[in-house]
């Protein structure tokens, strides 16, 4: 059994639910189990483990935050019903890559908390905290679906910005590729599409499903439905990506016209101008429809990530180091996107034959994952 397959076998079942998907919400038992696994792996290698007070975990070869340290790593948390590779692949590969470097020094592995935003709603929460992109107060107050705040889950108010970041000489995140764009085992990241998530609230008049005439209704579900269709049409028109994967209705009763429908729009595009156009057109059409339905619409941006262009010279250098590995953008957000505004940052992508991600079918072959480990080892060696 290959190094990768053996280590992967230790964690691949953690957090898997009956439908074959994963539910590894940040700071809940499955993710905490993987944190313990991380500490064990670090201990086996004589690495020092630290936490940054934001929920991020680090293992160090050498002095924590020593100047010139190269950090690699990713996240353990998953979306609900997600795949097993998105996140953990980067951390398992990091430990194995270190094993292939003779006397590794000035190297560290990070496990960032709440990258998916699946529990507390803001993606890359851990890397945003440590880089000062979100305040400890706002992060601490974020709540999950059970009303538990991030501060409560963490057990303290987050520390916030970590000064040691300025000592890092590079950050490299290895990640499963998620867009059907890689037909060789390993690629190098060039950019992350600008993207964000907007909470849309449609307010109407709750009423009886059986006795209220259609002409007397102010039904927010109708406006919501038209908005979902509009987002889909507008995205197709301009080559952007629009998704509404999460919706809540109040009172959520079969025989009551809803008084409120809340839906989250995940919108992404290859450039900011196109993303802005998408938002503008969707909100315009939703507002027009609300006027017709007698409902009210409010839209709140919950998190927006600007376009990220990774260090071009670094990407080219790594591509050459890896035998002219393809350099490609991604429509998925990553902690590397947040880190790139503070540290020279690179991403490595491992081929995902189906391209499916954030779903149980997500996967990569052991051979390609081994190639990813080998590539990461060479990249880390070249950077330290
Ligand atoms: O949603 C994303 O793009 C990432 O997987 N957090
Ligand atoms: Mn993801
Ligand atoms: Mn990820
Ligand atoms: Mn009744």
From TrEMBL:
It holds the Pfam family Peptidase_M20. Zn(2+) 2 binds at residues 86, 116, 358. Zn(2+) 1 binds at residues 75, 86, 175. The keyword Hydrolase applies. Keywords: Hydrolase, Metal-binding, Zinc. Binds 2 Zn(2+) ions per subunit. Allantoate binds at residues 197, 255, 268. Its cofactor is Zn(2+). The keyword Manganese does not apply. SUPFAM superfamilies: Bacterial exopeptidase dimerisation domain, Zn-dependent exopeptidases. GO terms for molecular function: hydrolase activity, acting on carbon-nitrogen (but not peptide) bonds, in linear amidines; metal ion binding. It comes from the Bacteria. NCBIfam families: hydantase (TIGR01879), PRK09290.1-4 (NF006770). Belongs to the peptidase M20 family. This is Zn-dependent hydrolase. It comes from Actinoplanes cyaneus. The lineage of its organism: Bacteria, Bacillati, Actinomycetota, Actinomycetes, Micromonosporales.
């Amino acid at each position: 059994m290959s190094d990768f397959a053996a280590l992967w076998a230790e964690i691949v079942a953690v957090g898997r639910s009956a439908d074959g998907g994963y539910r590894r919400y940040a700071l809940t038992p499955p993710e905490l189990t993987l944190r313990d696994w991380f500490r064990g792996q670090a201990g086996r290698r004589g690495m020092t483990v630290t936490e940054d007070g934001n929920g991020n975990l680090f293992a160090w070869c050498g002095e924590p935050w020593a100047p010139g340290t190269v950090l690699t790593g990713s996240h353990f948390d998953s979306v609900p019903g997600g795949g097993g590779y998105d996140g953990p692949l980067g951390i398992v590969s990091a430990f194995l890559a270190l094993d292939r470097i003779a006397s590794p020094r000035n190297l560290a592995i990070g496990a960032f908390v709440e990258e998916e935003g699946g529990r507390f709603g803001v993606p890359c929460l851990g890397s945003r905290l440590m880089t000062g992109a979100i305040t400890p107060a706002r992060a601490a107050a974020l709540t999950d679906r059970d009303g538990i705040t991030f501060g409560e889950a963490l057990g303290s108010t987050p520390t916030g910005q970590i000064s040691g970041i300025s000592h890092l000489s590079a950050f490299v995140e290895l990640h499963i590729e998620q867009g059907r764009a890689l037909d060789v085992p390993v690629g190098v990241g060039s950019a992350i599409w600008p993207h964000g998530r907007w909470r849309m609230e449609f307010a109407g008049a709750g009423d009886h499903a059986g006795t209220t005439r259609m002409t007397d209704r102010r039904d927010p579900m109708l406006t919501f439905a038209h908005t979902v269709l509009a987002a889909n049409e507008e995205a197709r028109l301009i080559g952007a990506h629009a998704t509404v994967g999460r919706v809540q209705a109040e009172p959520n009763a079969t025989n009551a016209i809803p008084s409120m429908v809340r839906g989250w729009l995940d919108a992404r595009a290859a450039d900011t101008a196109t993303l802005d156009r998408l938002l503008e057109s969707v909100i315009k059409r939703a507002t027009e429809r609300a006027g017709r339905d007698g409902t009210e619409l409010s839209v709140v941006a919950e998190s927006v990530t600007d376009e990220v262009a990774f260090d071009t010279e670094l990407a080219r250098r790594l591509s050459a180091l890896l035998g002219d590995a393809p350099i490609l953008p991604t429509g998925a957000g990553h902690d590397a996107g947040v880190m790139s505004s503070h540290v020279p940052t690179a991403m490595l992508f491992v081929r995902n034959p189906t391209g499916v991600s954030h779903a149980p079918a997500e996967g990569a072959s052991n051979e390609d994952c081994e190639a990813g480990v080998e590539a990461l080892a060479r990249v880390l060696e070249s950077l330290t």
